[in-house]
Design a protein that fits this description.
The chain has seven helices and four strands. With 180 residues, it is an alpha+beta fold. This is non-specific serine/threonine protein kinase.
């Protein structure tokens, strides 16, 4: 399988070979997901996928959702970013959204029909990928050695698949309750 990162003329995928309901062409500036995200540039591609960098037009909401699931963003990140002052105060708190409802990932998964043990196991596997500090991110080899990968049925039950599809749909529609 070949893969590549993008440059220049490769940004425009064109419409040749694309079919409705299957692959579809994307160009920089194209909106998707109800106009929430805007395609910025292609960052890689392979035989089965293309990865695009996208701008989230609801960035403040996205930061709040991240904090609700993962906890407070470390202050060294909130005060050093080039746009930090647009979103965070000097204490690292969001400027616009003040009250957050912290909700651990495993509890969110249980809400969307994962069993408690499944939710806990998957959260234990997923959580390290979502750390705010890149120095703490696990390597691919470490991830593959995680117990969550062991004894997995290569053909998941339809019930599990529908739970995952429902979770994906509902995460797209997740709304933050803003308090003042």
């Amino acid at each position: 399988m070949s893969c590549s990162s993008s440059s220049g003329s490769e940004e425009d995928e064109g419409a040749d070979g694309y079919r409705k309901g299957d692959y579809h062409a994307v160009r920089p500036g194209d909106p998707f997901c109800g106009r929430r995200y805007i395609a910025q540039r292609k960052i890689g591609w392979g035989n089965f996928s293309t990865v695009w960098l996208a701008y989230d037009t609801r960035c403040k909401d996205h930061l709040a959702m991240m904090m609700e699931l993962l906890g407070k963003i470390p202050q060294k990140i909130t005060i050093t970013g080039s746009q930090s002052k647009d979103y965070f105060d000097s204490h690292g708190d969001l400027k616009i959204i003040r009250r957050l409802k912290f909700w651990p990932i495993d509890k969110l998964l249980v809400k969307y029909n994962f069993s408690v043990p499944e939710a806990w196991e998957f959260t234990e596997f997923l959580q390290p990928f979502l750390d705010f500090t890149s120095e703490k991110l696990p390597t691919a080899a470490q991830c593959l050695k995680h117990p969550w990968h062991r004894n997995k049925d290569p053909h998941p039950m339809v019930e599990n698949k529908s739970s995952i599809e429902k979770l994906e749909r509902d995460l797209d529609n997740l709304q933050i309750k803003v308090g003042r």
